[in-house]
Amino acid sequence: MSSAVPSPNPWLALTGVAIASFLGCIDFTIVNTALPALSQELGIGLQQSQWLITAFVMALSTFMVSAGRLADLFGRRRLMLAAMLLFGLASLAAGLSHSLATLVFWRVVQGLSCAVLYTASSAIVSNAFDEARRGRAIGLLFSANGLGLAIGPVAGGLLVATLGWRWVFLLNVPLIAIGLLLCWRHVRESAAEGDGQRLDLPGLALLSLSLPLWVLLLVQGGNWGWSSPSVLALFALALLFSGLLVWTERRVPAPLLRFDFLARPAFTGACLATGGLAFFYCPAFLLMPLYLAEVRGLDAASVGLLLLPTTAVLALLSPWAGRWADRHGTRPVLLAGFVLLAASALLQTRFASDSAWPLVIAAFALMGAGWACVLGPSTVAAMASVPAQDAGVAMGMSWTFHNLAGALGLAITAVLFQHSGSAFVSGYQNTMVLLAAASGLVLLGLVVLVNRARPLASVDSV
Length: 462
Known about the structure:
The protein is mostly helical. It has helices at residues 10-29, 35-42, 46-49, 51-74, 76-95, 100-128, 131-162, 167-170, 172-186, 201-224, 229-249, 265-295, 300-306, 308-328, 330-348, 357-384, 391-419, 424-452, 457-461. The radius of gyration is 21 Å and the shape is globular. The relative contact order is 0.13.
């Protein structure tokens, strides 16, 4: 007598993957609000504690493409489960750490595992659903991702105030365990198919050398001085290793980085869109809470409530944006997204110490709507523009653009504030002018790429 084993449920698979991806995204921003309490307990300066963010971003950006390639080669389910387990262990160890060096080490491990959580998750969800439901499912996934990015500072503040900074890390453990069990039971294995699938070790080594240098340059360049010897040396090394990487990848039979993908307007448009989004939200979501707290004098609870027009709209509209992309292609959704982001930035250029609250709420809501229109559909566009066996590489490359563009946005914002002196509102307005202009340029770039794209499916994927 035999009992039938229930088939995997794609919606439960999506739930498990979304939990893991949500935790990876919230860890990107939640640590910021824990830094003062963490620094005080460990007896370190705030500038030293910034390495907890820098180390995470460097590890995440460095391993993003490699994670996608490893998932394609060795199985997305297998690598996802391993990364979830590693993330849970790293979170537990970080929460129990008693020195900065130990905490930075476990933040690096978190960053490496989050690279898998970001890249393999979309490919897994794409494989679990048919084409008619894929955009909606990925929209739901990125609704969870966007919510994680957006509520990180608020959740971090609440956890630090009630339970202490260690719970910023420890709370990950039971949540990732739930996601791990769901993925173990309901995620189907998938991997790249075809001949010539291998790991590009020279490309992996050069990428691991060049990307951390670029991230370090963008994150610390303003603090060290852009013309300082250390920054100039970093820039020279980054250029050298990047040049060797490009030279190598054009000659190996199975490259880690597929530069030929950039010749596809659909893929280039997807990278431009996700990079433009990160360039916008990383500075904007850093400055918006500061404007509410420092300029308008609100307490932490009120700041969290006034950020809801962004976070709630992002979470509510992401599935709708996915359904719109299913029906009409990703192109109109992405274009609408950057129109909304530009409109939000233009409204925020009018912020002052006594701006009307309806203006503030409208600007924040427009940002959430634009964020929702770009976050998920840009991922759908990237994966739809390449063969299925290269989905992990495409996802890794597009998210690498995403992370580097976010770091660049933060670096340029720091320069703008340095030239604004002590006038926060002036620096805020200048940053929003920059973000409005950048959104307009991305919008123009997407239109140009649409005109260059060949007819049929590739046009709809831009």
